[in-house]
Each structure stands twice: as C-alpha cells, then as structure tokens.
Amino acid sequence: APLGTGFFSTKVSTAGIASVAGRTATGESFTSSGGLGPQGQMGACQPLYKNKGSITGLFKAELTEGFIPASNTLTGNWSWTKPADSTRSYAEGFSLTGITVSGGFLSSKAGSGLVLGLPAAGTASLSFTDGGLGLSDTEPDVANFGYTDKFIIQMPTAGTPANEARASLAINKATGQVSGSFTLAEDGSSMKRKVSFLGMIIPDASGEIKAQGYFLLAQLPGAGEKATATPILSGGMQVTQP
C-alpha cells in the first residue's frame, strides 16, 4: 500500500458548503463538496480510477473555546480503494480503511497574504521515507536548510554532502503548497532518477511538523528489466523544525 501522505484543503462558504480539494499519496487529484453539519462535520467522496475505486470519509472541525480559528483542528477517518490494473503504481490494487485525517487552521492572516504554520525564520529539515529509497546509494534528506524572515529558502549547495541528491524546495507562502525534487544516482551506473514531490503546510499539534506530502519513485530495474517498466512506489515527505 502507498506510504506517502496525501493532503487536502477545505473552504467553507458563508452558505455552509464545505469544498474539499487535494491529492492522494499516489498523485490522484480529488474534489468534493457538501453541507457543513451543526457540529462541524464534513464529508468527502470522490470516485477514482475510472470509477472503479474511490476515496471517501468523514471529518470534523473541532472548534476551540472562544472560537479562535488558529487553534481549531481537523480530525477524521477515510477509506481509499484502488482496483487491480495494469499501471506501474500499485498494480495489485489495495483497500485501505481507517486512514487518519488530521490538520488545522490554514487560512490567511488578515491582510498579510500568509498562511499559518509556515516555518519560522531559522533552519529546518527536509526528509523523505519509504518508496524504495533504502535501495539507493544517494541520501535525499537535507538536515538543515535556511528559511529567512522574507520567506526565502536557502538550500545547501547541490551535490555537496549537505545536499547530496541536489534537492530543491519551494513553499508558497500564500497557499501553503510545497513542491520540489531530488535526484538519485547509483554507484557504478549512469542511471539517474529525478523525483518530484508535492505537499502542503499542515498545522500539527506538536508544532514540529511544518509540511507533509508524497513522492513517487520508479524502482531500480532488475536483470533484464526495463527502467520504464519498473513499479512506482509512494513515499513520504516532511518539512520539520524543532
């Protein structure tokens, strides 16, 4: 089953309609909309994979005492199913239940055009997990990158030990979208795999996790196997700051 982190955002209109838009941990886009319940309940339902699979579930906005938006949280459980097919990404299919939904208030600060939850000025870390990374000779993690009070990201020089996989990173301060890439090289081989990742700023109760998301990695070919035909696995991305 996919091991990356999917993400979504929700907007609630003055008419009480909750609109959801996001991506699964394997890159499928999904949207949904429906009425907001009296206790902050919301739902999402999106057919996927030519209507043979879906992502669906309920979630709830937990309003804090005093109705302070920045302290509100989001919790829920979703289900995600994919049928067996001939694609490179999880061709055997899967059926996942009890997927944890968690998050918080992201809306822009009044008049500033900034989402809440951005890293503070200083240093932060970019890390990746699963997806077959353990089989690569290249370390994609960036233990320390700079983030200025002008919202500028300062990555270590590409190709140095501090940024071995030549990782790039962009954080949209107005929408919270996170994107970037890294490149895996293997000893004794000319093969290089450039891997893109996507995510978003997701308010976390611990305060350390600033963003989460996913990447999709084509696996290394075995003997007699074409690089264009290997399985594609999903892994996780995080931006953290103590």
* SSE-based structural type: mainly beta
| Nearest-integer average pLDDT | 92
Strand-residue proportion: over 45%
Most strands sheet: 8 strands, antiparallel
Question: What strand order characterises the main sheet?
Answer: 10-9-8-15-14-13-12-11
Distance between the termini: 30 Å
Order of helices and strands: EEEEEEEEEEEEEEE
Oligomer: single chain
Shape: flat
Count of distinct strands: 15
Low-confidence stretches: none
Give helix % range. Answer: under 10%
Please write out the topology:
Layout: E1 7-12, E2 17-23, E3 29-35, E4 41-48, E5 53-62, E6 73-82, E7 94-104, E8 122-130, E9 142-147, E10 153-154, E11 168-171, E12 177-185, E13 192-201, E14 209-218, E15 232-240
